Amino acid sequence: MREVSGKVAVVTGGGSGIGRGMALAFAGAGMHVVLADIEAAAAEAVRKEVEARGVRGLALHTDVSDRASMERLAEQTFRAFGGAHLLCNNAGVSVFGPLDQTSDADWRWVLSVNLEGVIHGIQAFVPRMRDARSSGHIVNTASIAGHAGFPGLGVYCTTKFAVVGLSEALRQDLAPHGIGVSVLCPSFVKTRIAECTRNRPANLGGPGEIPEQAGALLQQIGMEAEEVGRQVLEAVQADELYIFTHPDSRAVAEQRYRNLLGAYDAAAARRAGRSES
Fold first, then answer.
1. Annotated catalytic residue: which of 156, 242, 257, 264?
2. Domain 8-245 has what CATH class?
3. 257 a catalytic residue
4. Domain residue spans in the chain?
């Protein structure tokens, strides 16, 4: 989707962090932006920033874990703008701690936002985008944790691995319809994800303790979210599948694939040994 000026972008989790960074980058390129967020006041604040760049903005309270809420988002977007060209399934949360200490509520909360939120976005928007018969693009936010496992982040890694696989398959499914797909895989970014339990529903455990060290680390070494937004815009225009924002995270992927290739070599050696015996 090379030409973006005048087109419409929808960003979930658009009230802060990477979502805000993408929204501002899109607005700077002349796109109208719909900000969907469970924190309505935050979405409204970003809407004002978007409109200060000379484009239209719309802030909508949205719970991505609720299929009906995402359907309303699509309906209101198409009613207000007549369509949507770029969908960013970006909202995300995390829990921290070893998997053997993870509760059922932890799993249900993170899965409902990080994975089902992406699925709901696809279900609500893709049929409408496809029927419009115009070029479009979808960006699903995963993580470098979608390419390698990290201790204490097992639930988060599970959802992000799933988003990577989903995006790879979705790209192939939608190519005949002129809709591109990218998967965003950042490393450390200055966001408030360490504080995400502030929005955890009561029936899934409610707000919990904030891991202060994790939050401080993100603010100290994290990339500015606006820079991530600029990179996403460029990748969408170039129709790239994978969007890696941090070149130094390459080592993580290389180690994973060395391990995979080593396992294939071991399998081949075992098979060769049986053939010789």
1. 156
2. alpha beta
3. no
4. 8-245, 250-277
